[in-house]
Amino acid sequence: MAKYSITVKMHKNANGMVIDKGMSVEMVTMAPNLMSGPAADQLNAIFKGVYGVDLKAMNALSVGYLDVKRIG
C-alpha cells in the first residue's frame, strides 16, 4: 500500500462548488493511477467528505487540477 498527498493546484468554480489552491487530502491505496477507476472514486469521496466538493462534477479530477505526491 502507498500513501499519497493530493493537493489542488489552482482555483476553480464550477457547478456551484469551489476548490482553491492548497486544499489537500491524504489517501492510502494500492492503485497505481489515482485519476481513474476505484481509486478516483475513493479520492472523490474523500474530497466530498472533507470539503463538500464533487471533483467529478466539477471536471477537476485530473492532474491538471491536482498534484499527487507519494509520501509513504
Write the layout of secondary structure elements.
Blueprint: E1 2-8, E2 12-14, E3 17-19, E4 24-29, H1 37-51, E5 66-70
Give the termini distance in whole angstroms. Answer: 8 Å
- Shape, please? globular
Number of strands: 5
Mean pLDDT: 96
Your description of this structure?
The chain is an alpha+beta fold. The chain has 1 helix and 5 strands. The protein has one helix at 37-51; strands at 2-8, 12-14, 17-19, 24-29, 66-70. The strands form 2 sheets. A 3-stranded antiparallel β-sheet has the order 4-1-5, with helices on one face. A hairpin with a 2-residue loop joins strand 2 (12-14) and strand 3. It starts with a strand and ends with a strand. The model has no long low-confidence stretch (mean pLDDT 96).
How would you describe this structure in keywords?
1 helix; alpha+beta; single chain; two-stranded antiparallel ribbon; globular; 72 residues; 21% helix
Condensed summary:
By secondary structure, this protein is α+β, with helices and mostly antiparallel strands.
